[in-house]
TrEMBL record:
<dbReference type="InterPro" id="IPR036526">
    <property type="entry name" value="C-N_Hydrolase_sf"/>
</dbReference>
<keyword id="KW-0378">Hydrolase</keyword>
<feature type="domain" description="CN hydrolase">
    <location>
        <begin position="22"/>
        <end position="332"/>
    </location>
</feature>
<dbReference type="InterPro" id="IPR003010">
    <property type="entry name" value="C-N_Hydrolase"/>
</dbReference>
<dbReference type="GO" id="GO:0016811">
    <property type="term" value="F:hydrolase activity, acting on carbon-nitrogen (but not peptide) bonds, in linear amides"/>
</dbReference>
<dbReference type="Pfam" id="PF00795">
    <property type="entry name" value="CN_hydrolase"/>
</dbReference>
<dbReference type="InterPro" id="IPR050345">
    <property type="entry name" value="Aliph_Amidase/BUP"/>
</dbReference>
<protein>
    <recommendedName>
        <fullName>CN hydrolase domain-containing protein</fullName>
    </recommendedName>
</protein>
Length: 369
């Protein structure tokens, strides 16, 4: 399997598997306005995919609801709203009219792809904030995820100039849970069923095809989501986002950073805090990708797209608020250290004390003295 032990690592009982290296890319998108044609957004995404291909990336990650403006800030109904949703053909997003060129090119390049879009189901016409993982090598949508943590409000704010976040109005909460999956052939020589190897044995852990998890934007702020994947051995988390840099009604105002400019710095800080800590605490890499810049001249979205390693360190980071590709070669074999030592869940977790986390939603303070 090409597993190597360094002298120091060997004495500490650590293994690193050099065959689990893969080049990955995050395709940050700059602003997409209300009047930007869908085809223009798709063309920009294809250009970033060309760039990723020329840099030998085997996986590309796009933002949340990638090809269109972040429409949940607007009050919309009827066709004005429906135009933003993608319709799958018999449940197959690869055939959806708008998205098809992306799947076609990923297939041509044999590149895997995380693609975020607003989904309208065919049968019951239900709306979700969705992403899929498409394997360009085997031409298959391997997994779909629907955003669980929908931020914002159902009703618009009363103040006319407030920035709305009407995700609770336009989407149903995701119904697919946090199901990890394996990305076929993303690394060479992975153990498969055919080998007869047993799952979850000390010598087969971390040796199959890479274990991937998907979340969308606000989900990244919830450690519960990461841990649900962590408990399935996730090695690579993928997250697209549209994060407003200034929305006082929605986010409140921090008295330490009351100006619009400084609020953006705070939003960037919180983004990085979430993805670095949770990558560390679940010993996984993460690829976190923004749609950013000033949409329609007045709605600022943060950039800060980054690839984070399993120690919580940023290994690639966007420097603009425009279309920009970030690329890194990551070694998923590095995940073993955290999973076998500090975050060896099977040795250290104390589930008898975690009941509240799944039984209770809101806060219940202790009795008054
Ligand atoms: N699209 C999002 O989910 N945005 C939220 C904002 C509203 C806080 C986020 O968590 O980035």
């Amino acid at each position: 399997m090409g597993s190597v032990q360094t002298n120091d690592g060997a004495s500490a009982g650590l293994t690193a598997d050099s065959t689990r290296k893969v080049i990955v890319a995050g395709a940050q998108l700059g602003a997409i306005n209300v009047d930007t044609p869908r085809s223009e957004g798709i063309q920009r995404m294809l250009k970033l995919m060309d760039d990723a291909h020329s840099q030998k990336a085997k996986l590309i990650v796009y933002p949340e609801i990638a090809p269109v403006t972040f429409f949940p800030r607007h009050i919309l109904e009827g066709e004005e709203l429906e135009q933003y949703f993608e319709r799958e053909v018999d449940g197959d997003p690869t055939q959806s009219t708008n998205l098809k060129p992306l799947f076609d090119k990923a297939r041509e390049y044999k590149m895997d792809m995380y693609l975020g879009y607003a989904e309208c189901t065919g049968d019951e016409h239900v709306h979700y904030n969705t992403c899929v993982y498409y394997s360009g090598q085997i031409d298959k949508v391997v997994s779909k995820y629907r955003k669980v943590h929908l931020p914002g409000t159902f009703e618009p704010y009363e103040r006319k100039d407030a920035t709305n976040q009407l995700e609770k109005r336009y989407f149903k909460p995701g119904d697919l849970g946090f199901e990890a999956f394996r990305a076929p052939n993303l690394v060479p020589d992975a153990l498969t069923k055919k080998s007869g190897a047993k799952l979850n044995e000390p010598d087969t852990l971390g040796k199959g095809d890479p274990i991937v998890g998907m979340i969308i934007c606000n989900d990244r702020r919830w450690p519960e989501a990461w841990r649900a994947y962590g408990l399935q051995g996730v090695e690579l988390m993928l997250c697209g986002y549209n994060t407003t840099a200034w929305a006082p009604e929605l986010l409140g105002v921090n008295s330490k950073v009351p100006t619009k400019e400084k609020t953006k710095t705070e939003a960037l800080f919180h983004n990085k805090l979430c993805v670095t800590y949770n990558s560390y605490a679940n010993s996984c890499f993460s690829i976190n990708v923004a749609k950013c810049g000033m949409e329609d001249g007045k709605y600022p979205l943060i950039g800060g797209s980054c690839i984070v390693d399993c120690d919580g360190e940023v290994v690639a980071e966007a420097s603009t608020e425009e279309d920009e590709l970030i690329v890194a070669e990551i070694d998923l074999g590095m995940c073993r250290r955290g999973k076998e030592k500090v975050f060896a869940f099977e040795k250290h977790r104390r589930i008898e004390h975690y009941g509240r986390i799944s039984e209770q939603t809101g806060v219940r303070e202790p009795e008054f003295l």
